[in-house]
Target: Peptidase S24
Amino acid sequence: MSNRGGKRENAGRPRGQGKFGEPTIAIRIPQSQGATIKMFLDAYQNKRTGLNEEATNVDEFFTPSISDQPTRLPLFTTKVAAGFPSPADDYVEKRLDISEFLIDHAASTFFVTIKGESMIDVGLLPGDKVVVDRSKTPGIGNIVLAVVDREFTIKIFDRSTSGRPRLLPANSSGAYLPIEIAEDMQFEIFGVVTGSFRRFE
Model:
């Protein structure tokens, strides 16, 4: 009887010998998000840029789960000083689908969790989820998710007087310096931040 084919004892790569040094599992992800997940894993593995922890202010990545049945909630057109108006009142102009409001292009959009305080002056606080769209073209002044020497960071896109790209923090304390992109640095704008959201309780 041939011993070829089928599962053989001790065959294959030993457990924990991959690039991350630990056992792996198989998962299914949307095809459009493959590059995003791979880039995140590469960044996780290669902590070698010298950017400090606060400058590298990106934590978790999520892909949006879009329901076939949108959740449309009342959108009130009047400002509420105290209390809450009854839906029976004539204040509801339309119903708003949260996913539709936050996401322009589902196939190219993902969410990232903010860590640190380098972007608090534009309202991005630790724990906030930001919406990143890879299909949008970045412009000067846009908040972007950038990759600098395989490290992710969210900053304001700018250019120096020499025309070189640079990434600006948004914290008036002066505790965070701009990231000047030198010619020998790996640099890519991975997506444009189009919104953010948080929970209070």
